[in-house]
Amino acid sequence: MSADKIQKTARIYALQNAVQFNGKASSKAVVGKVIAALQKDGFSPKEIIPIVNSVTAEINKISLDKQIRELEKLAPELLKKEKKERDFSLPALPGAEKGKVVTRFPPEPNGYLHIGHAKAVIVDYEYAKKYDGKFILRFDDTNPENAQLDFYDAQKEDLRWLGIEWDEEYRTSDNLEKHYKLAEQLIKQDNAYVCQCSPEDIKHGRYHGKECTCCGTGCGDNLTLWKQILNSSLDDAILRLRGDMTCDNTAMRDPTLFRIIDKPHPIHGDKYRVWPTYDFAGAVEDSLSGVTHPFRTKEYELRDECYFKLLDSLKLRKPHLMEFARLSIEGMPVSKRKIKPLIENGSVSGYDDIRLPTLRGLKKRGILPDAIKQFVLEQGISKVESSVTFGLVEAANRKIIDPNAKRYFFVRDPIKLIVENAPDMTKKINLHPGNKELGSRTIKTGKTFFIQESDIKELKVGDVFRLKDLYNIKITEKKKDILAEYDSDKLIPNSAKIQWTTDKHIKMNVLVPHPLFVKDKYNKDSLETVNGFAEEAVSNLKTGEIIQFERFGFVRIENVENKIIGFFTHK
Ligand code: ATP
Ligand code: MG
User: Could you please report the per-residue DSSP string of 338-368?
Assistant: First the structure.
């Protein structure tokens, strides 16, 4: 009886696993499932394993078709589950209550947003939505050396393009007076002190876990010194948290909370010169603005201790700090710090260069916001740091654009083809084989065509091939031009189908992006220009349309004063 039950359960899971993996089940995987399913009934792995092994071997002998049919009979719900799209919904947040979740996205207005920011903001925004909560856009603009006026609006524009809406927007720099008060509180409680050591000495002290003499200053004196910093009678000083200079976590070795930056701020001009660090501003703002679940990238992990110590000392509410891995993409710089120098030294043309993962670069290339969202949700909020390929973004994008992208002919590196006895024709060709709603275009053909040289490289005189969607021709001569004659209309199985344009074509360049970095080195061949002829109908396309050049790839069109340029999206 018991063997029977194991047998039945094993058969179902072996079938499911086989169907999932192209007809071959792995007994190891099946064993795990069967043990999990039967554990509560008191079966031991010792009883289960030999039965699963023999059942799996049996299942692996039958065809995938039969496996599917049997599974359909025994456990149709398992089959359906496999057919269903993977569920990419975000996992539940710890301690989250409907209507009470508050998230925030805190960009520094010091550059254009990239796909890494998209990951952060989509996660923040989607969680707020999932819990009917609130989503805050907060500009972390407390470093006047970095913040730049243009970027506040540019970042908002890019977020809107992504489909993000925020319930509240504010600038951290507007809260500086509040920050100063909290700093004073810390000093009065003797949780912070003014340090006048040189940056080198501070670094040295932190490295060796040694306190400096400023650490011994009493709180009354610290308060006087702090006021002097604020009123500009003291320079070269910082405010430090009393952490623990011997702590294994070096982030706790009396971290800096405030420093002097004598640079005009894009919003506040010269009004302030004492600015909070990320450690201070990030923690305080998350708490004061009511954020319940702030997300940070894993690289801040060591700073979490400081985040909580600060809030503890200030007796402020502590949010549920969340972490996910920073997004990295092979061959692409997913960081403002890395992108900036590329623009400054001319390695790329600007923030919207199609080789960059900036939202502007991706948009120009033809990547849709929904594809970015799909990609981000597929990645989820794992903490495992890894580098993914851009192919994942492309796959998500392809799924969205393929059913709706009009298809046209594009001939790269064209050569002339004369079909000597060609009939004059007016041919209507559908713009999409599956989506009839996209309509058709009409092409007039005569004797002259252009085709791609590499397409007929392997063909010899006497070979017959098909001008795609037109008719078959036979090669009569291969010289600089190709000569041919009309052969027949009917599709010939297995004969080559070749794209073409007529003498009424437009000259067109398509810019094709390749990885910017290969083995961490700048790839000087990262931008390729493909020259070719596109069929005439392409000249009527508008800026922003994403089409498919058959057998070439998807291309986003820009039509500037009737000059058409293409940006290669992906295959
Ligand atoms: P960068 O190196 O691009 O300047 P940053 O973290 O300094 O990155 P911010 O403007 O401070 O840029 O980032 C705003 C938010 O976006 C932060 O919460 C940050 O963690 C997140 N973020 C930035 N880059 C990435 C990335 N590559 N992957 C995931 N999240 C990111
Ligand atoms: Mg930053």
Answer: HHHHHHHTTSSSSTT-TTS-BHHHHHHHT--
Identify which of 279, 535, 337 has the alpha carbon closest to the alpha carbon of residue 429.
535
Ligand nearest to the CA of 336: 1
Would you kindly state where each structural domain of the chain is located, as residue ranges? 2-80, 175-281, 327-401, 407-570
* CA of 295 relative to ligand 1 center, distance in Å: 11
SS3 288: helix
Q: Taking phi first (over 0 means left), then psi (-120 to 50 degrees means alpha), and beta for anything else, what does residue 437 get?
A: alpha
Q: What are phi and psi of 104, to 5 degrees?
A: -150, 155
Q: Which CATH class is domain 407-570?
A: mainly beta
| Strands 464-467, 497-498: pairing kind | parallel
Name the residue of 297, 329, 358, 387 whose CB sits within 8 Å of the most ligand 1 atoms, as the mutation to test its pocket.
297
CATH code for the structural domain at 175-281: 3.90.800.10
Distance of CA 503 to the CA centre of its chain: 42
Would you give per-residue pLDDT tens digits along the chain (571 residues)? 578 999 999 999 999 999 888 788 999 989 989 998 887 888 888 889 999 999 999 999 998 888 988 998 898 888 765 555 556 789 999 999 999 999 999 999 999 999 999 999 999 999 999 999 999 999 999 999 999 999 999 999 999 999 999 999 999 999 999 999 999 999 999 999 999 999 999 999 999 999 999 999 999 999 999 999 999 999 999 999 999 999 999 999 999 999 999 999 999 999 999 999 999 999 999 999 999 999 999 999 999 999 999 999 999 999 999 999 999 999 999 999 999 999 999 999 999 999 999 999 999 999 999 999 999 999 889 888 889 999 999 999 999 999 999 999 999 999 999 999 999 999 999 999 999 999 999 999 999 999 999 999 999 999 999 999 999 999 999 999 999 999 999 999 888 899 999 999 999 999 999 999 999 999 999 999 999 999 999 999 999 999 999 999 999 999 999 899 999 999 9
Pick the CATH number of 327-401 from 1.10.10.10, 1.10.1160.10, 3.30.70.20, 3.40.50.12780: 1.10.1160.10
pTM: 0.85
Answer whether 109 contacts ligand 1 (Cβ < 6 A): no
Q: Is the CB of 369 under 6 A from ligand 1?
A: no
Q: Virtual CA dihedral for 103, 107, 113, 119, nearest 10 degrees?
A: -30
Residues 49 and 39: their CA atoms lie apart, in Å, by: 13
119 lines ligand 1 (CB under 6 A): yes
Give, for ligand 1, the residue of 117, 159, 278, 351 to mutate: max count of ligand atoms closer than 8 Å to Cβ: 117
Residue whose C-alpha is closest to residue 371's, from 348, 402, 350: 402
Considering only CA atoms, give the Rg of the chain: 32
Same fold, 175-281 and 407-570: no
CA–CA gap between residue 25 and residue 18 (Å, rounded): 4
